[in-house]
Amino acid sequence: MKLLLTLDLQFFAGEKTEKATPKKRQDARKKGQILKSQDVTAAFVLLILFLFLYITAPKMLESLFSFLHQAFEKNMLIESLTADTVMKIYVDTLKEMAMVLLPFMVIALVAGIGSNYLQFGFLFTMETMKFDLKKIDPIKGIKRIISVRAIVNLLKSLLKISFIGAVTSIIIWINLEEVLSLSFQSTWDTLTTVAKLTGMMGIAASITLVFIALLDYIYEKYEYEKQLKMSKQDIKDEYKNAEGDPKIKAKIKQRQREMAMRRMMQEIPQADVVITNPTHYAIALKYDESMDAPTVVAKGTDFVAQKIKLIAKENDVVMVENRPLARAMYDQVEIGQQVPEEFFKAVAEILAYVYRIKRKI
């Protein structure tokens, strides 16, 4: 019965039911384990690109015509080709292509970086690029293929295809008259209509992807939190590693108390007076001309108080009984501190009494 109870306790202690600690999250981030949805990045980039195309299409068309004009009117009319003219054609072509493609590429780059930054902030790590044999383990590869995550990814893909197909079909259905009249339009009007419908379908599909990406982000967050969960034993081990073993810390504190006690007892023979309760409290005071006020060199209750009085008796330190003063000073004054002003009068009377006794002796 005891064995079964022990096994049950070990099982529950090892079950990952607790939320990840900040340290666990920080360590996972350093390893590249972050909350990230690829669909969010893809949807955000596509939406920004189609909006950019829809707004700047006329300007990009002018740049494209300029490129074609450069290629078919100027370059084709060059009579003699030399190394210099070929290099000039190459440079001019690159410039015209850059005017067309560079804004598009810059927008895509900024959108990709921005979408990732919004998800997990700035992060640079090489941990994910390290060679790991576990990544090419065929057994784990098969498990990933038939895992719940693979099924979810399949459902997401089907959902994307269904939604995007439905949205584009709706847009074509709404503009069916324009689509059917394409065969009766001029080439320029046909291209204009197709470009307009393509932009509308792209924006609508991107908005649909954004909606799906939000659902994917929620799922990824659930999986991320589930992956980071810790057992109670993991939390205890982390605390031990970060703060030290509680048993060792307790031993260190005990050793520190013992050392402080020995130092305190060594100061008692140099004290001028020990104020007692008389049985439960003992306060040892020391005063000389270099001090602004008398200083507490030792204090204690019960057993420690008896020890202080024993050492004081062995070293001929005068003991004076003053119950309220001993109790009040024990509560308000720490070892090494000077006596507060509110106790000056009472302490001065006791020290005067002690000095009179010492003079008689």
TrEMBL record:
Keywords for the protein's UniProt record, in alphabetical order: Bacterial flagellum biogenesis, Bacterial flagellum protein export, Cell membrane, Cell projection, Cilium, Flagellum, Membrane, Protein transport, Transmembrane, Transmembrane helix, Transport
GO biological process: bacterial-type flagellum assembly; protein secretion
GO cellular component, one term: plasma membrane
Location of this chain's protein in the cell: Cell membrane
Bilayer topology: Multi-pass membrane protein
Transmembrane segments: 40-57, 100-125, 146-174, 194-219
Role of this protein: Required for formation of the rod structure in the basal body of the flagellar apparatus. Together with FliI and FliH, may constitute the export apparatus of flagellin.
Family: Belongs to the type III secretion exporter family.
NCBIfam families (UniProt xref): flhB (TIGR00328)
Name recorded for this polypeptide: Flagellar biosynthetic protein FlhB
Organism the protein comes from: Lysinibacillus telephonicus
Gene: flhB
